[in-house]
Amino acid sequence: MSAAPTHPVDVLLILARDDLVLLARRAGTGYADGQWNLPSGKVEFGEDAVSAVLREAAEEIGLQLDRSEARMVTAVHHRNTTGLARVGLVFAATHDPDRHGEPVNAEPHKCAEIAWFRADNLPAATYPYTAAAVDAWRAGEPLELSGWDR
Known about the structure:
Elements: E1 9-17, E2 20-26, E3 36-37, E4 40-42, H1 49-61, E5 71-79, E6 85-94, H2 97-100, E7 111-118, H3 128-139, E8 143-146
Parallel strand pairs: 1-6, 5-8
Antiparallel strand pairs: 1-2, 1-4, 2-3, 2-7, 5-6
């Protein structure tokens, strides 16, 4: 008999402005440090997915988004190189500098920097989970499998 699956549920935010998306370069966490990823995190116990993505936006990039601004655009079932899998619910929001202000690196102990990148030309050091989420969003795919043999 196999063990019961444990697939954490993540929320990832594609903050878009024109043809750009906001990424954060991880640092000091011991996991994927030096790689670029979307503002993201785990859904906490008792928390719904929309509340989780709004919380992560505030915690990581200092933005207060309304519930109506974050729309789910795709899901990613990602398996990392060690074989551990997770499910990511990917939300997109359009950045409005007049309403939101500019994003900031609100977690410098976990993030070296934030920067805008063209959605069709992400940096080479983009974490595969993030790259899969952005690619699926751009293609309008409702589900992306990342890190799985097909």
